[in-house]
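Sample intake — Short-chain dehydrogenase
Collected from: Mycolicibacterium wolinskyi
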Amino acid sequence: MSETARRVVVVGAGSGIGGAAAAHFHDRGDHVLAVDLRPNNTPASQHLTCDLRDAHSITALLGEIGGGWDVLAHVAGVPGTAPPADVLRVNYLGMRLMTEGMLPLLRQGGSIIGVASTAALGWEQRIDILTGLLELTAGDDVERWQAGQDPDFPVYTTSKQAAILFAKRIAGPAWSKYGVRVNTVSPGPVETPILADFEQTMGKDVLDMVRSTVGRHATVDDVVPLIAFLASPESRWINGQDIQVDAGFIAAMTGGVPIAL
């Protein structure tokens, strides 16, 4: 382990972006705790399992690992093909409970990075609706809240919008009380095992359009460097931000007519 080795928790380390992030930190000599729903072979110093749908499972994990950590990379998420209750419990509530529980376990100067999505585009226009969700911290209450929402609005989008808004609202208090930064990363489509699920829920034609616009889908190697940067001291003055990693697709959508070159 190098002199600059850190203690890093990666949640969702079994595959995809989470697995690549865990391997990255492990390769640089960090002590990595790889957390996932199921046992896995991701390169790491430790492996533990946790069911983000279950608050008791999260509490048990946090009680087992103790303090003295430097980074939480919370990458775990499920696509919109999962049951709506699971989408909200994992993508929003599980992330929230893990983040809040890790704050006192992180050293001052630590960093929390959550992975959201460009599917959360437009969260600013739904703050009033999302505020109602952010007032809830129990799984059953979250399910009841979702039951009262427009069934045609994608629950995956809601879950990632809530994750971004939560991170922004907790970033200031986390900095003031613990000296810990909280940011989110929003990838566009990424070549991972669940890409087919996104094609099913968002439409393959939509994802093909994204790919044709920017040239290709992202790989995990396009996303992990940003997670690593936000975990590093070099990003020490970045807090409460959501950074899109999509080759500029969302900027092209929202910025108006491109400037001809």
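Post-analysis note: Residues 155-178 form the longest helix (24 residues).
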